[in-house]
Amino acid sequence: MADKKAKEKDPIDIVHQNAIHVETIVKEKRCQKLYTKFSINPYKKLHVLTDKPMSTNTHEQMEADPTFLRIIHGAHLEPTKKYTYPMTESQEIGWISTPLIVSDRSDRRLNFPRQNSEITKYMDAAWRLKEQTQNLR
């Protein structure tokens, strides 16, 4: 029975298909917004490409918008310079980065300079020589 109904179905009517298509487009246009003003996101890194080699435009001739430059430079600042207090809990760790005590380089208790013994000096020289010979190959 189902096969007979499928075979008896009317052929596809182009007029009805066009009416359905028009109705779909009208519904889509009702919800669409047309954006004509575009700007660069100041919080995303900007990758600047160089001009063409034979171009007559130079950066000195172009005028830059000072407010745009201020926003771009402000977006690339460190969080401690951008905000007066930490915005997240992760920023609280290390927010105050000034040392608690003044470092004294002559104090042997807190300063451990690099010390080389005869063995470490020899191995350092051997390592450098090995790298130089590998670079020559």
Describe what this molecule looks like in 3D.
The protein is an all-alpha fold and 137 residues long. It has a domain at 13-37. It has 6 helices and no strands. The longest helix has 19 residues, at 118-136.
Shape by Cα distribution: elongated
Spans where pLDDT lies below 50 across 5 or more residues = none
Q: Compute the gyration radius: what is it?
A: 35 Å
Helix coverage percent: 40-55%
Structural class: mainly alpha
Give the beta-strand count: 0
Largest sheet: none
Mean pLDDT: 83
Strand content of the residues, in percent? under 5%
The SSE string, one letter per element, is: HHHHHH
Q: How far apart, in Å, are the first and last alpha carbons?
A: 83 Å
Question: Number of helix segments?
Answer: 6
Keywords: Cell projection, Cytoplasm, Cytoskeleton
Main location: other
Family: Belongs to the CFAP144 family.
Subcellular location: Cell projection, Cilium; Cytoplasm, Cytoskeleton
